[in-house]
């Protein structure tokens, strides 16, 4: 395959508004700035990535502004004008910067896209996935009452979603899940706590075992794998880790400790597609299923998610709902749509989805162009 040399990187900061506010145990999201990373190679192809950040550091420590800062001052200068033989090398090239996984992933995914386009291949093929229809689930934010939640679940089940995920927090958990389960005895149902509990809540969380949940996602601290292991020994509902897994090493240790039985893979959280593939492969070796998490992405991040989900161990429906569930107008030319609970991976080379120049212009806050190593910091070569 042909290598790529990056000639220019554009950091497009845009402002987007969700159709409806989305509430989790750590807060409510409505409007956010995100940065679209456009990587232009010497043959003139553009590859795209997205910072799956928001304005506040409540999911993890990053924000869109910290990501833009890291990209501009450190990450882009490391790659600009360098020959990249394969995008799998980018993760290592960016490893001189500690963490900042979402910033790294936005750049790394854009390189996967441009590399695939230059080589005239769809991204999933470069990743080693097999084209298939992607099974889709729906993540539902915390609602004002159990009845409101039941009505939302009914709506999404009717639309064809193959898995329903309900956000929970103390005060909006057992009663909510109980009502949903009573109304829908047979749906594939799970809960996501976003780190709202501690080990003091073992007895409380044990009550969830009666509802036949597919899993409970990240019940304990965002940085914990020890207490999750204790909790897993005390509940029958499988634990899935989200926030705690930033690297292959985190995943290896969590599996070794028995801290979870399932892993949610988010490209942003693990610093890019290369690390995501490694975690996917590790889980497959251990017979641990994975699924693709969501970060309320625009069509750019969403397309990357769909391509990743073609890998063989993504056997649980992901949080990859269609564009219309998030945006009045997506940033890509053709909305991502769902039919009977499945989404087709966007066809074409790279991620398949093309940016809409009109939508970009409409939402644009500012663009920074980087054409050389302009950094005032020493960047290792
Ligand atoms: O529909 C989606 O994109 C998933 C939404 C979601 O659950 C989520 C959204 C923002 C931050 C964290 C999470 C999460 O999975 O914990
Ligand atoms: Mg989660």
Automatic annotation (TrEMBL):
Pfam annotation, one family: MR_MLE_N
CDD domains: NAAAR (cd03317)
Catalytic activity, as annotated: (1R,6R)-6-hydroxy-2-succinyl-cyclohexa-2,4-diene-1-carboxylate = 2-succinylbenzoate + H2O
Alphabetically ordered keywords of this record: Lyase, Magnesium, Menaquinone biosynthesis, Metal-binding
Positions bound to Mg(2+): 192, 217, 242
GO biological process, one term: menaquinone biosynthetic process
UniProt xrefs under SUPFAM superfamilies: Enolase C-terminal domain-like (SSF51604), Enolase N-terminal domain-like (SSF54826)
Requisite cofactors: a divalent metal cation
InterPro entries: Enolase-like_C_sf (IPR036849), Enolase-like_N (IPR029017), Enolase_C-like (IPR029065), Mandelate_racemase_C (IPR013342), Mandelate_racemase_N_dom (IPR013341), MenC (IPR047585), OSBS/NAAAR (IPR010197)
EC number: 4.2.1.113
Superkingdom: Bacteria
Active site: 167, 266
Biochemical pathway: Quinol/quinone metabolism; 1,4-dihydroxy-2-naphthoate biosynthesis; 1,4-dihydroxy-2-naphthoate from chorismate: step 4/7; Quinol/quinone metabolism; menaquinone biosynthesis
Similarity annotation: Belongs to the mandelate racemase/muconate lactonizing enzyme family. MenC type 2 subfamily.
Function: Converts 2-succinyl-6-hydroxy-2,4-cyclohexadiene-1-carboxylate (SHCHC) to 2-succinylbenzoate (OSB).
Protein name as it appears in the record: o-succinylbenzoate synthase
Originating organism: Rossellomorea aquimaris
Gene that encodes the chain: menC
